[in-house]
């Protein structure tokens, strides 16, 4: 129990005060926002590339009228994303997210910062 006047945070501690690197519980925002975003990004980049390109080209060609002219491409893109979003293969996103969060908590460096350090060390 925390003393009066102090707060106790669930994700405090760890080597950098960012939480326990071995903790595998997910906060609500991670479960409902972060992981689904990761899933959508992967689906856009790896699985629905043709649909994304089709919709993008339609939007570029239509300008402000894209709301009217690109309905078919938009619904095709949505159905492709939804199909992959519900696929069991995408459960890997949870594991990837947990691994990335664990590494952040262990090192105190974001993925972007770690890549920058690696590039700096190489060159």
TrEMBL record:
<protein>
    <recommendedName>
        <fullName>COX assembly mitochondrial protein</fullName>
    </recommendedName>
</protein>
<keyword id="KW-0496">Mitochondrion</keyword>
<comment type="similarity">
    <text>Belongs to the CMC family.</text>
</comment>
<dbReference type="Pfam" id="PF08583">
    <property type="entry name" value="Cmc1"/>
</dbReference>
<dbReference type="InterPro" id="IPR013892">
    <property type="entry name" value="Cyt_c_biogenesis_Cmc1-like"/>
</dbReference>
<feature type="region of interest" description="Disordered">
    <location>
        <begin position="1"/>
        <end position="24"/>
    </location>
</feature>
<dbReference type="GO" id="GO:0005739">
    <property type="term" value="C:mitochondrion"/>
</dbReference>
<feature type="compositionally biased region" description="Polar residues">
    <location>
        <begin position="1"/>
        <end position="10"/>
    </location>
</feature>
<keyword id="KW-1015">Disulfide bond</keyword>
């Amino acid at each position: 129990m925390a003393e009066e006047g102090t707060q106790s945070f669930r994700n405090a501690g760890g080597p950098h005060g960012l939480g326990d690197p071995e903790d595998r519980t997910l906060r609500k925002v991670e479960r409902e926002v972060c992981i689904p975003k990761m899933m959508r990004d992967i689906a856009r980049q790896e699985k629905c590339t043709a649909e994304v390109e089709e919709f993008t080209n339609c939007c570029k060609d239509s300008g402000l009228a894209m709301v009217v002219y690109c309905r078919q491409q938009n619904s095709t893109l949505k159905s492709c994303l939804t199909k992959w979003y519900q696929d069991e293969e995408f459960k890997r996103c949870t594991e990837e997210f947990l691994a990335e969060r664990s590494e952040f908590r262990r090192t105190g460096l974001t993925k972007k910062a770690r890549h920058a350090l690696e590039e700096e060390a190489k060159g």
